Structure formats: C-alpha cells, structure tokens
UniProtKB/TrEMBL annotation:
Organism lineage: Bacteria, Bacillati, Actinomycetota, Actinomycetes, Mycobacteriales
Keywords: Aminotransferase, Pyridoxal phosphate, Transferase
Species of origin: Mycolicibacterium chlorophenolicum
Gene3D superfamilies: Aspartate Aminotransferase, domain 1 (3.90.1150.10), Type I PLP-dependent aspartate aminotransferase-like (Major domain) (3.40.640.10)
Superkingdom of origin organism: Bacteria
CDD domains on file: AAT_like
Coiled coil feature spans: none
An example molecular function term from Gene Ontology annotations: transaminase activity
Cofactor(s) for this UniProt protein: pyridoxal 5'-phosphate
Official protein name in the record: Putative phenylalanine aminotransferase
E.C. number: 2.6.1.-
Pfam family of the protein (one): Aminotran_1_2
Family: Belongs to the class-II pyridoxal-phosphate-dependent aminotransferase family.
Domain Aminotransferase class I/classII large: 21-327
Length: 341
C-alpha cells in the first residue's frame, strides 16, 4: 500500500488548506532543508533524545547572545508557559492577564490552580498597562503579549518599560513574544537587554508561527540567570524530540528563506488590512500574521458561518483571521463584502 493510503497518514491535516485560518499557523509547508533534516532524524527514532535539551539550549542561547543558563525549552510556547507556572507558582496564587487573550492562558491558569484576574483591553485592542501594573501588586504572575493575540496590537517600548518598572520585583512578568518575528524593526524591543535589566521578566517565543513548525511543538523562554536556573529545574526529561532539535538547527541555517516567507506574510497582511479599511471595516492595528475584526458593529462570526473558512470566533461576534495565501485573502474579502451588502 502506498504510504499516503494508510490509516496513519489519513489523520494528518492538509498542509496547504487555504481555509484553515483559525490557529495563526504558517501557510507554508516546511522548508526543503528542514524537511531533509527531519527526515534524516527519523532513522534515529529508536534512540532517546538528550536527557535534558542541552544542545538545543546552547544553539538558541548562542543565537540570542545570552548564557545557556538563561534559556529553557518547551513543547511550544505553551510548554514553556506551563513550565514557568509549575516552577514559580503555588495553587491559589494570582495570575493577571488581559481579556481577550490567547486561549491558552485561562486553560494554563486552571491547570496550575491559579486565581485569574482579567483586565479588559482598551477599545483599540491594546493592553491597559496601568491597570495591569495596579493588579500586579500582590500577584505572582502578569502576562503581556507583544504582539497581542487576538488583536495583534503592540505596546510602545516606552510604555512597556514604564510598566515593567512599576511591577513589583517579586511578580513574574511573562512577556509573550510568540509573533515577534513578524514585527517591523521600529516595533522591536531589545528583549535580551530587558531580561538583563528586569530580573523578573521571562520572554517566551515559539517555532510554531513564523518558523512554521507548529506540528513539532517546540518553543523557548529566556530570562535572568537566577530565574533561568529555577525554570531549568522543571525541564521535562527527554521532553524535546530529535526532529524538533534538528528542525530548529536547520531553520536557523535557512534564515534567509524564512525571512522571505515572513516578508510575504506581512505584505499579505498589509494588503488584507488595506482592503478591509477601504471597505470601511474597522480592524485593529495588527502587526503579526493575523487580523482582528471586533464584533461591536457587525457580528462577523455570523458572517463567516457557512463561508467554509475556519476563523477564530469570539463571543462578542468578533473574529480573528490568520493571514494565509492570496487565495485565502480573496476568500476573506469575498465573505466580508457579502456581509456588508
Ligand atoms: N502565545 C500566544 C500569544 C499564542 O498566540 C500562541 C499560539 N496561538 C502561543 C503562545 C502558543 O503557541 P505554541 O504552543 O504553539 O508555541
């Protein structure tokens, strides 16, 4: 039987489905060099990976220009976040987050038995950093996503620094940079410098988004060395697979091709935003690989019913739409145009 006819292969998702716009995945299948490296790793799958992911940690630390003991590795950013909560919180502690936010946060807060405190975004989809800094007093953890999910908004560097200097030193700040690679240079913050200056900040990143490796489940966090050692103590034995290790190394080697893909995605996002605004549709100032249409004026979630497009729907009727191929953009515009008629 050909491999593609087996039941095992039948459970795989379609790599290039233009309608799959609900999870902020990359529309591109893995780069040839990444596929080749992963394929080569399959021959060693009878062997365990390293007990603790020292090699991947030093590759990532070298890339960032930090010491190895400042880095931890997880099953996606989600795994890193859970590791941080495991290492640094006790049941009943408070976790402050904005609302709406990445769906994982309420789930992880529940799993770690934390008390969630939510702070509404402002009407343009930005964090209310003053209210979050107030709420951070007495809290164990406060989460800031930059860019934010679902709105894609980016807080000014000066506002972020002001916020960090207001948060008590014994409150951990999770700075979630899952989409950082999509940021234009003027929005970048020197995160390595931040963790140097603020010993309570953990920056979390992932290979799921710009690197297009969501199926491999690999992400990392970095922070000051003292905090890094506490997090490394919670590093799951044999927790990072061989394919994940080689895929990251191959991705770093294929940086130029990845950059080109990121440029394609951000150009497509700008095009989609321009088309939406030209149609009179309000959309937040999203800087990642998705756009967000709040539900206030129109119930966009209803408009996407029956469109065949999978988008993330919110209770208020808002939708978050991943930027995909040109065909995806056209299908989104058609659906929005039909709703406005
Ligand atoms: N943080 C944010 C803000 C996200 O949007 C996501 C994925 N949607 C994650 C973390 C987790 O991503 P992963 O676990 O795939 O790395």
């Amino acid at each position: 039987m050909a491999a593609r006819d087996t039941a095992a292969v039948a459970v795989l998702p379609d790599a290039v489905n233009p309608c799959a716009l609900s999870l902020n995945e990359s529309p591109f299948p893995p780069l040839p060099a990444v596929r080749a490296a992963v394929r080569a790793s399959l021959d060693s799958l009878n062997r365990y990976p390293e007990f603790l992911p020292h090699r991947l940690r030093s590759v990532i630390a070298g890339r960032l220009g930090v010491a190895a003991d400042q880095v931890v590795i997880g099953e996606g950013a989600t795994g890193v976040l859970m590791q941080v909560l495991h290492a640094l919180t006790s049941p009943g502690d408070t976790l402050v987050m904005s609302t709406p936010t990445f769906d994982g946060y309420p789930i992880l807060a529940r799993m770690a038995r934390l008390r969630p405190v939510t702070v509404p975004l402002d009407r343009h989809g930005h964090h209310d950093l003053d209210a979050m800094a107030d709420a951070a007093v007495g809290a164990r953890v406060v989460v800031v996503c930059r860019p934010h999910n679902p709105t894609g908004t980016v807080e000014q560097v000066s506002a972020l620094e002001r916020f960090l200097s207001r948060v008590p030193a014994d409150t951990v700040v999770l700075l979630d940079e899952a989409y950082v690679e999509f940021l234009a240079p003027e929005h970048r913050v020197d995160a390595v410098d931040l963790v140097h200056r603020f010993g309570n900040v953990v920056v979390v990143r992932t290979f799921s988004k710009a690197y297009g490796l969501a199926g491999l489940r690999v992400g990392y966090g970095f922070c000051a060395p003292a905090l890094g050692r506490a997090l490394w103590a919670m590093q799951l034995p044999f927790g990072v697979s061989l394919p994940a290790l080689v895929a990251v190394v191959a991705s770093y080697e294929a940086e130029n091709q990845l950059r080109q893909r990121i440029r394609t995605i951000t150009a497509e996002r700008r095009r989609l935003q321009m088309r939406l605004r030209a149609m009179g549709v309000y959309t937040t100032d999203a800087q990642a690989n998705f756009v967000y249409l709040p539900g206030a004026a129109v119930r966009w979630s209803d408009a996407f019913d029956g469109s065949g497009l999978l988008v993330r729907r919110y209770d208020d009727g808002g939708v978050r739409i991943t930027v995909g191929s040109r065909a995806s953009t056209r299908a989104v515009i058609r659906t929005v145009a039909a709703a406005m008629r």
